[in-house]
Amino acid sequence: MPQEGLKFGLRPMLESGIFFESFSSRHLSHVLTMQNDALPNQGVPDEDDLILVDRVLAGDRRAFEPLVRRHERRVFRVTLAVLGNIEDAEEAMQDAFVKAFRHLGQFRKESRFTTWLTRIAVNNAIQKRNARKNFVPLAEVETAEELFAPKR
Question: One digit per residue, pLDDT tens: the chain, 152 residues?
Fold first, then answer.
């Protein structure tokens, strides 16, 4: 039976190992060759993201997909770090993107879109983790009922 979950295509990346390649040194080559005085994104929002955000706000819903594709790995890593469970992390990631889409008009362009989106993802993951703490599995409830049920 195929696993339910996020439709952004992250599961095949995880299963194939592509996701973990993002941590390899070959993907960090731009960091190794960068000059000390040339720090990227130093207080300047990512212009590509801002252009896509403006297009979405103007009514082009399809412009949100490149934003999802560009940021899904980072958002997934953050939610996985908070939740420690792939399925919950995928769900929290999907919720974060939906919330970001719905509240895109509240994005202040003073900061990077990545920062704003990551904060939404962290908050979603924390809420999900806190809700999970209050959850009692049905099997435990049934066992407790058996133990404390009056005997006839």
Answer: 444 444 454 454 445 444 444 433 333 333 333 334 444 444 444 788 999 999 999 999 999 999 999 999 999 999 999 999 899 999 999 999 999 999 999 998 888 999 999 999 999 999 999 987 766 666 665 665 666 666 66
Residue 37: half-sphere exposure toward Cβ, Cα within 13 Å:
0
CATH of domain 41-147: 1.10.1740.10
Query: What whole-number distance in Å separates Cα of residue 16 and Cα of residue 98?
Result: 26
Query: Contact at 8 Å (CB) between 94 and 6?
Result: yes
Integer Cα distance of 116 and 99 in angstroms: 11
